[in-house]
Amino acid sequence: MTDEKSFSLIGPGRLGANLIYNLELKGWNCCLIIARNPKAKRQYLKNHIVQERIERGDNLGKNIFFTVNDDSIGDVAKMLADSGISFQDTKCIHFSGVLPSDVLKPIQDKGAAIGSLHPLYCFSKRPEKLPAGILFTFEGDEKCLNLANTISKDLDGIVYLIDKSKKALYHCAASMAGNLSLTLLYITFRLLSSALGDKREGQKESLILLARSALSNLESSDWKDALTGPVSRGDIETINKHLEALREYGEREFEDLYNILKGMTNRMFDDCE
Fold first, then answer.
1. Are residues 131 and 34 in the same domain?
2. What is the pLDDT of residues 217-261, one digit of tens each?
3. How much of the chain exceeds pLDDT 70, in percent?
4. 65-122 pLDDT, tens per residue?
5. For residue 1, what pLDDT is reported?
6. Whole-prediction pTM value?
7. φ, ψ for residue 149 (rounded to 5)?
8. What is the rounded CA–CA span in Å between residue 27 and residue 6?
9. Which end of the chain is more exposed for a tag (fewer CB within 10 A), N or C?
């Protein structure tokens, strides 16, 4: 481990905890963790220094990682800038998918290099070894780009440069794939439970298996060839029966959603021609 691979981290939530765990597997040293509640029982942080705020004289390492929620990043940066701590030769990176690196400008004005780095991944509550191939998007100072490349390389990922004006669109795509896809599964879970009755044993697991099989098809083929079901086959009568069943179910939003997704599926077929 070199000094260049030393860091402090602010906000040990899902992303932060997984980042600490995986970087330390690769020889990094987490010098200090700043947490809102430093006394909270976090088994995975028991061998680390955890405190509520950064004080003068603290060993911060060469890098500071911000993994707090988006709305807090700017406030934390301003608080650090006003602390009197020197940030000369320090690299500061936040991990928000939607905010630009500019939100760290208060500490940039104090000598820090700044950047934003976002992993396209859904993290578990408890830290676990990350798979290879995670895409990271970066924008910010050149010095922090070198750091981002080192992080990505150590985590077997890949870095894409992104214009700050495109971050909201990128993060929207990430949220739709990683978050709203679960909402779609929840809607299908409700429909399935209504069809099969209140005994829900195995229903969620079966839907997960179904979703995994669809993703497995996509891994081995293109978008068009991965699709199965009535839309791909052009079974109009089956689609009409689906819509009739949704009308009987009584939630108009579900019928609207089905029609939207059906239309987008047809567009996907046209795009893949």
1. yes
2. 999 999 988 988 888 888 999 999 999 999 999 999 999 999 999
3. 98
4. 999 999 999 999 999 999 888 899 999 999 999 999 999 999 999 999 999 999 999 9
5. 46
6. 0.90
7. -65, -40
8. 9
9. C
- DSSP calls for 50-83: EESS--TT----SEEEE-S-HHHHHHHHHHHHTT
- β-strand partners of 113: 91
Cα–Cα distance for residue pair 243/257, rounded to 1 Å: 10
For tokens 């081995």, what's the residue? 220
The two structure tokens encoding residue 199: 């005994």
Task: Phi first, then psi: give them for residue 195, nearest 5 degrees.
Answer: -75, -35
Alpha carbon distance 94, 96 (integer Å)? 6
- 145, 205: one domain: no
Among residues 58, 83, 60, the alpha carbon closest in space to that of 9 is found at 60
Say if residue 168's pLDDT is above 80.
Answer: yes
Q: Please give the biggest Cα pair distance in the chain.
A: 72
Residues 10 and 98 reside in one and the same domain: yes
Q: How many domains does the chain have?
A: 2
Q: Is 125 left (phi over 0), alpha (psi -120 to 50) or beta?
A: alpha
Which domain covers residue 238, as residue numbers?
168-271
Query: What does the alpha-carbon distance between residue 156 and residue 91 come to, in Å, rounded to a whole number?
Result: 21
